[in-house]
Amino acid sequence: MADHQEANVTLPSEPVSVSAARRYVARVLTEWGLATDTDFADSIQLIVSELATNAVQHTFGQSPNFTVDLRLEREEQLHLGVTDSHPRWPRRLPAAVQQDNGRGMVIIRTLAKECGGRLTVTPTADGGKTVWIALPWSVSVQS
């Protein structure tokens, strides 16, 4: 097998794209050997949902689409990134008692940490950003 595998999809910044992103990631990771009925798969699905939702809700129409990138390096590390062209980076909002949103990044960080991973944000050439989650991969990859 090659040192890495990659896959990506670009979707319109619309609410329906959140479930499309989830389905895409599930399909690719299944092709790479991840069983869908594991806690790890569930965590990845929730992370994708939160990142895609952020890309749709918090770009305020300034990012007409977002891209989901998957990269598996040496069967050891899974990198999941969601890129949009909005310049504002994600931030934790104060969690007020009656607040209905603003907890997505806390959820993402917590899930990444529970899976032994980490979150980073990198700028893009067009002034946007990619939110990356790096997770250890212990699944035997299928070619």
Describe the structure.
The protein is α+β, with helices and mostly antiparallel strands and 143 residues long. Helix content is 32%, strand content 28%. The protein contains three helices and five strands, in the order βααββαββ. It has helices at 16-31, 39-57, 104-114; strands at residues 4-12, 65-73, 77-84, 118-123, 129-136. A five-stranded antiparallel sheet has the order 1-2-3-5-4, with helices on one face. Strand 2 and strand 3 form a beta hairpin. Helix 2 (39-57) runs antiparallel to helix 3 (104-114). The longest helix has 19 residues, at 39-57. The protein is globular, with a radius of gyration of 15 Å. The protein starts with a strand and ends in a 7-residue tail after the last strand. 27% of the residues are buried.
Kindly state the mean pLDDT as a whole number? 88
The best one-word shape is globular
Derived from helix and strand composition plus strand pairing, the structural class reads alpha+beta
Helical residues, percent: 25-40%
Main sheet, how many strands, which sense, barrel?
5 strands, antiparallel
Count helical runs.
3
Gyration radius, to the nearest Å?
Answer: 15 Å
Strand content: 25-35%
Strand order of the largest sheet: 1-2-3-5-4
Give the CA-CA distance, first to last residue.
7 Å
| Helix-strand topology string | EHHEEHEE
Poorly predicted regions: none
